[in-house]
Design goal:
2 copies of one chain form a homodimer. Chain A has 12 helices and 3 strands, in the order αααβααββααααααα. In chain A, α7 packs antiparallel against α10, α7 packs antiparallel against α12 and α11 runs antiparallel to α12. Chains A, B: InterPro entries: GntR_C, TF_FadR/GntR_C, WH-like_DNA-bd_sf, WH_DNA-bd_sf.
Chain lengths: 275, 275
């Protein structure tokens, strides 16, 4: 049961994501080899030697071009490194955290995903992450959040730079993600932040002193709910943060449209003047 | 405001995802070059020539080793292809859908994410995707879903293979994702399905004729809600599907634990017999 989306369909619907292609690459020898090499890598540890080219060719009973084509795919998944020369051969590698969140975030940007869309999905995910974080018992992470909470007043008094606000926001999200102990939530949070940073739009909570104050106040209540282990309140504050961002995005959009109309009117005036 | 997570911390908390590293790579010349090359690629179209090595070296005022190091990073993000020889130079490329969902799904597997965790996040995302899909007005996608709905009875009567059930499920999810018109939801759905397939655990809705019947019946109601444009019902059925999967996962887990205990008891019997 495949859908009939051809090349034209893909062009028409830019956000078509062919999941069949995503997991299968068809049923060819190359795709089978991709799966096998992926398995070899996953069964080994990062850095382990998987064998020389000759050894893998014999073990898998495939041709050299097939192996090389498949190896390229698994290399692009960052699960394999092929080294030439002395000590050459196939080695297991692991994708870096950067790689794992960067390509989805870039893909979203290429699909013209909006901050609105990202915030809508975040509003679904973040409150649950907060509620799970409230159940965390890891003393190291609890100490980190306690330190983060303690620094908020000082940050507010000092009037930190935009870069510092951003770094704090990232550290905070990362901490909540790690405290949730859930890799799926952690992955989503990583992608959402990376996307936000690519968009460079995360300035909305600095646009006025009122917003900044409100945002830091929400950070305080969020920290307090998580540190007191109250999952219900943590979920509630998580939702409140989402709604706050939603309304700021809407406000900023309305303001930008008004500016756009004002600019267009000015241009028309000028045209009128020219004729 | 960076957290103090060092190498040891990363090892202790396997799901630490360093978002600072993820977006910045520090403030070095290489990382600045990575950002610039990424910009060049994003501003161009897939396949566009960005210039020769010599041209880029001059344009960016950097050294050859810096350019080559940065190019490797951008190549691994699938945004750049460096070709040698005649017509050599730097070309803009785009990540494939496969690449975009495969590495996060693999990362989740490496982090030992569970089907439970994936389903919990899916329960947050899928209902909203269904509700958005119900607002879709694209005649091609509506026709596809109509055809999918019409085929369910035939699939049930025929007793399709496991592979066919899986392909249908993927096509269905992909269709809902595309109908939602939201790249963020589409990305999440892609990752969740690829993860499920990697885990090869998506057999739970085939484990008994009752489950299979229930699953197809939910597919029917989901299709009907979306096709009738009823977002509220679509959201409700989306939630119901999630709860159903949740309870099946719990049932299967309990059964596996019982089997585990039975097997352990058997082994002990054998040990008792041997002494």
């Amino acid at each position: 049961m495949r859908n009939g989306t051809g090349k034209d369909g893909m062009l028409a619907m830019t956000n078509d994501l062919d999941l069949n292609e995503a997991v299968e690459l068809g049923g060819s020898v190359v795709s089978r080899t991709v799966r096998q090499l992926t398995q070899f890598s996953l069964q080994a540890q990062d850095g382990d030697y998987l064998g020389s080219e000759a050894e893998l060719l014999e073990r898998m009973s495939i041709s050299r071009p097939t192996l090389r084509q498949a190896a390229k795919v698994v290399e692009s998944d960052c699960l394999l490194s092929v080294r030439r020369g002395v000590n050459g051969g196939f080695y297991a590698t692991r994708p870096s955290a950067r790689h794992v969140v960067q390509s989805p975030a870039l893909w979203l940007r290429l699909q013209s995903a909006t901050l609105d869309q990202m915030n809508r999905a975040s509003m679904l995910i973040y409150p649950t992450a907060g509620a799970e974080a409230a159940k965390c018992t890891d003393p190291r992470l609890i100490a980190e959040l306690t330190a983060f909470r303690a620094a908020i007043d000082e940050r507010e008094a000092r009037g930190e730079s935009q870069r510092e606000t951003l770094d704090a926001e990232i550290a905070f999200s990362q901490l909540i993600a790690n405290m949730s102990g859930d890799p799926v939530l952690t992955l989503f949070i990583g992608i959402s932040y990376t996307f936000g940073l690519l968009e460079r739009e995360y300035r909305f909570y600095r646009r006025s002193p009122q917003r900044r104050q409100r945002w830091l106040s929400l950070q305080r209540s969020y920290c307090d709910a998580i540190l007191s282990g109250d999952s219900d309140i943590a979920m509630l504050i998580g939702k409140r943060r989402g709604h706050q961002v939603e309304s700021w995005i809407a406000e900023d959009k309305a303001a930008a449209q008004q500016e756009g109309r004002a600019a267009a009117a000015k241009t028309e005036d000028r045209h009128d003047g020219a004729t």
